[in-house]
Amino acid sequence: MRAMLIGAPGSGKGTLAKRLVRDFGFQHVSSGDVLRQQMADGTSVGKKAESYVNAGKLVPDEVMVELMTSALKTLETSGKCKWLLDGFPRTESQAKTLDDTFDLGLVMHLDVPDEEIIDRIQHRFVHRESGRVYHTLWNPPKVDGVDDVTGEPLIQRDDDKPEVVKDRLEKYWDLTMPITQHYAAKGVLSKFTGTESDVIYPSMKKFVDGWVIGARCTRE
Ligand code: AP5
Ligand code: MG
Description:
Blueprint: E1 3-7, H1 13-24, E2 27-30, H2 31-41, H3 44-54, H4 61-77, E3 83-86, H5 92-101, E4 106-111, H6 114-122, E5 124-126, E6 133-135, H7 162-176, H8 179-186, E7 189-193, H9 197-214
Parallel strand pairs: 1-3, 1-4, 2-3, 4-7
Antiparallel strand pairs: 5-6
Helix pairs in contact: 1-9, 2-3, 4-5, 6-7
The protein binds BIS(adenosine)-5'-pentaphosphate and magnesium ion.
């Protein structure tokens, strides 16, 4: 029951993860959300990560591997092995280390054109504490600038500035996209192409419905 979403920045990983959590009860583990929480809490990892994240650069592998494998081990120790990774692994080396610890049963690759992504990110607003994501036109909050659930203000991420988004996309194509081949070779990769999360989601849901039937969570 260990699954992962892989795709470019702004491809809709967070948006689709929320729906998969709602429909299948996955634990959503987003490396970006984990890092932003560490930064907001002012931890030593957060301080180390801040300059990388704000500049759209990848946080060093050893920091990410330690942070994410310990988050996953905590889940597993409490009996939760139905999880959905988002944003990790992002390099060949992270993927290899993750493999040494856990077997992923399903990797869903979101394939969305760069032009669509650049347009979307300009309209993105987020609720910092929960990671809830809005789009001012496509998925607006009920009240302008305010989170639907808590009523707290929404923010724009520092790394969503156009010049930083360009760097993030380059890193994705150079370092992250190639690891899809690693999962294809293991026979666990499925690709979902499109520009509309509302169109991608029904086919993704159907696919996950079929996968969940055969998947087993040994600790559940
Ligand atoms: P992270 O937070 O993971 O950012 P990302 O991968 O760049 O992805 P995003 O969160 O920006 O996009 P998303 O795919 O979740 O899209 P969303 O659903 O929000 O990482 C941030 C940083 O942390 C990295 O740059 C790096 O520095 C560091 N980091 C994280 N993991 C790391 C790792 N493993 N190694 C090293 N460093 C790491 O959707 C985007 C927008 O589009 C939203 O506004 C949404 O409402 C909208 N939208 C979604 N679907 C549609 C649609 N169909 N039509 C219109 N709008 C839509
Ligand atoms: Mg995200």
